[in-house]
UniProtKB/TrEMBL annotation:
Gene3D superfamilies: 1.10.287.130, 3.40.50.2300, Histidine kinase-like ATPase, C-terminal domain. The modification 4-aspartylphosphate is found at D57. It catalyses: ATP + protein L-histidine = ADP + protein N-phospho-L-histidine. InterPro entries: CheY-like_superfamily (IPR011006), HATPase_C_sf (IPR036890), HATPase_dom (IPR003594), His_kinase_dom (IPR005467), HisK_dim/P_dom (IPR003661), Sig_transdc_His_kin-like_C (IPR004358), Sig_transdc_resp-reg_receiver (IPR001789). This is histidine kinase. GO terms for molecular function: kinase activity. Residues 169-401 form the Histidine kinase domain. Residues 8-124 form the Response regulatory domain. Its EC number is 2.7.13.3. It holds the Pfam family HATPase_c. It comes from Azospirillum himalayense. Keywords: Kinase, Phosphoprotein, Transferase. It is an enzyme of class 2 (transferase).
Length: 409
């Protein structure tokens, strides 16, 4: 690395002797530039290589030092360059006026070069510290911006994972009635072919026709029932997806909505060897945001499947809903798993906290759930757990939110 560059000092004074005196004492340490008027000083200051510090006389013709300082401090290119006034004006009012303009110091004439040198060293040191702090702040801001972008990306990834799980669950549920309907149609097609063959051969009997009609009636009913079931599943799925896509507020029956919102999670639970039981009073209406509520419950259930049970363990997850006083409702989602380590409880809703670090577990699920409950559902969420005694997440929310809210990104 090369030697550090000397600091540049600009001396502005309309008296040649003052310029010569100050320059002779400073040029052995610093790069010194001298001018005898304010216009020339501003040209140098606003150039591509502004000085690191300016020694500025106050009383100059055409443009005095106060006006030069005012212009320097008004321009973003030079507002951080330290200005030290050199003047014969020694009143308190003059000094205060100069400092109020943005000068860092005020040296009275006649000038003592050692004093000027000491003041210059001090203010250059302070400027270096300030520059370093500004650079650090900019680095922190840039890092914070990158962190926010990464966090938003991970949050969207977590939301898409939850939606993907819902889609796979719905696909699994739809496959069952579609499969039944397809089997019934295939069987009915075979009966039609058989009856047509008998008709062409003139061998059809009344009993054959009666049996065909009975089988056809049963097959048509089976097809109709399962197609209607499929249509209902798709309609429920569409409503859940619409709710998930935003945070619109509407009035809905909580029991019916939970049935729609959670049915896509059943296959995921069964595949992992677990069961889900939902208990909710009939006729409990809510005026809130169903999408965020669905997302919170999905996150909590996925969290239970991922973390609550030991490998090979068949667990139970229960969701119980209880109306509370003053038009509040409490949802308790409990599992009979291994419980949560007490030292993890205080950090459970912190962003990026997870006990299973990896791409599938970025540690944002419970953080998202916490924000949705507090910011959108206007409620609270907490966890109760003892090692070996399972865990219970308790969500308390008003049956009617007080004002429209938007889900966090």
């Amino acid at each position: 690395m090369g030697a550090p560059t000397k600091a540049t000092i600009l001396i502005v004074d309309d008296t040649a002797d003052n310029l010569s005196l100050l320059s002779s004492h400073l040029k052995s340490i610093y790069t010194v530039k001298t001018v005898n008027n304010g216009d020339a000083a501003l040209r140098i200051a606003f150039s591509n290589h502004p000085p690191d510090l300016i020694l500025l006389d106050v009383m100059m013709p055409s443009m005095d030092g106060y006006e030069v300082c005012r212009r320097l401090k008004a321009d973003p290119r030079t507002r951080d360059v330290p200005v030290i006034f050199l003047t014969a004006r020694t009143s308190v009012e003059d000094e205060k006026f100069g400092l109020d303009l943005g000068a860092v110091d005020y040296i009275s004439k006649p000038i003592s070069p050692p004093i000027v040198l000491a003041r210059v060293k001090n203010h250059l040191s302070l400027k270096a510290t300030a520059d370093s702090l500004r650079a650090t702040v900019e680095e922190v801001r840039a890092a914070h911006s990158r962190l926010e972008e990464t966090q938003q990306h991970l949050i969207q990834t977590e939301k898409m994972a939850a939606l993907g799980l819902l889609v796979s669950g719905v696909a699994h549920e739809i496959n069952t009635p579609i499969g039944v309907a397809l089997t019934a149609v295939s069987h009915l097609s075979g009966l039609v072919e058989s009856l047509a063959s008998q008709f062409q051969n003139g061998a059809i009997r009344k009993s054959d026709l009666a049996r065909f009609l009975e089988n056809a009636r049963e097959g048509a009913l089976l097809v109709t029932t399962n197609i209607v079931r499929t249509a209902n599943l798709i309609q429920s799925f569409k409503q859940v997806v619409v709710d998930r896509a935003g945070s619109e507020r509407r009035v809905f029956d909580l029991k019916d909505y939970l049935s729609d919102a959670l049915f896509g999670l059943d296959p995921h639970l069964r595949e992992a060897g677990h069961s889900l039981t939902v208990s909710c009073p009939t006729g409990l209406t809510i005026d809130s945001h169903p999408g965020p509520l669905s997302e919170v419950l999905s996150i909590l259930i996925r969290n239970a499947v991922a973390h609550a049970f030991r490998p090979g363990q068949s667990g139970r997850v229960t969701l119980s809903v209880t109306p509370r006083e003053e038009d509040w409702v409490e949802l308790r989602l409990a599992d009979d798993g291994k419980g949560i380590d007490p030292e993890h409880l205080p950090k459970l809703f912190d962003p990026f906290f997870t006990t299973r670090r990896g791409i599938e577990f970025p540690g944002l699920g419970l953080y998202i759930a916490f924000n949705l409950v507090h910011q959108v559902l206007q409620g609270s969420i907490e966890v109760e757990s003892l090692p070996g005694g399972g865990a219970t997440f308790v969500v308390r929310m008003p049956r009617r939110v007080s004002a429209p809210a938007e889900a966090p990104a």
